[in-house]
Each structure stands twice: as C-alpha cells, then as structure tokens.
Amino acid sequence: MSALAVTLSDDEQPYLVVPLLELFEAEDFGVVDTPMRMPLPPASLLETFPEAVVERALWWEGHILEVLHGLPPGAEPGTAPRPEYGPGRSLTARQRTKAAELSAAGHRGESQHGRPPPTPPPGTRRGRPR
Length: 130
Hints:
- With 130 residues, this protein is α+β, with helices and mostly antiparallel strands.
- It has helices spanning 20-25, 51-69, 91-108, and strands spanning 5-8, 16-19, 124-125, 128-129.
- The chain contains three helices and four strands; from the N terminus they run E-E-H-H-H-E-E.
- Strand 3 and strand 4 form a beta hairpin.
- The chain is extended.
- The chain starts with a strand and ends with a strand.
C-alpha cells in the first residue's frame, strides 16, 4: 500500500491498483480487521533462520500486531482491547504505549508473552541510537 493507492488481488484478477479515494468512496467498501497473526506462507524466509531468530521475530510480531489491531495474537474471540490499544487511540499513542511497556519490562528483566526482552540492535543504547 502506498499513500495514494492500494494493490488488490484475488483468484480472478491477480493485481489491480486502485486509488485510495476511489476505494473509500465505493459503496461496497468496508474495512475488515483481523486481530490474529496471519499464517506465513509454507516456504517462508523465516524457515531459513536459526530457531532463536525466528522466536525473536515472532515475539516482535506479536507486539506489532497488538499495536496495529488492539489485541495480541491468540486473544480469545470477543476479547476487548485494553483501553491503551482501543479503537479511539491513535496509532502514535498505541506505539508510545507499547514502547513504554517494553521499556519498563526490559528494565525489570521480563517481558510480555513469557519471552525474554530483546537485546538492543547494534549501535544503540537501551534501544536508542547513540
């Protein structure tokens, strides 16, 4: 997706570029939100990485999906998002909330979802660029 158009595909028409304004004005257009992790393709590039790297990627993915959709992967159907991730909150506010949560968990030496907090990328100090 770009700022001006989206690329749609289905079995009948593999690729169709539609301007966003045209899409949003269409009477039959609706946003469908899926708060669960989408399945990876069978021959995923993740399979080529060591297990620890895949685990870390999936750990990040869970946090990213919670920011984007309000719920972490595996949430029971009908579960309401926490107020900090609810539909009335902007993406920026949700990102800030998640950053604060991960920072606090890292300082305590723990994390959500029972996995260790990630190590900062090279060239950063506690997740901040030098």
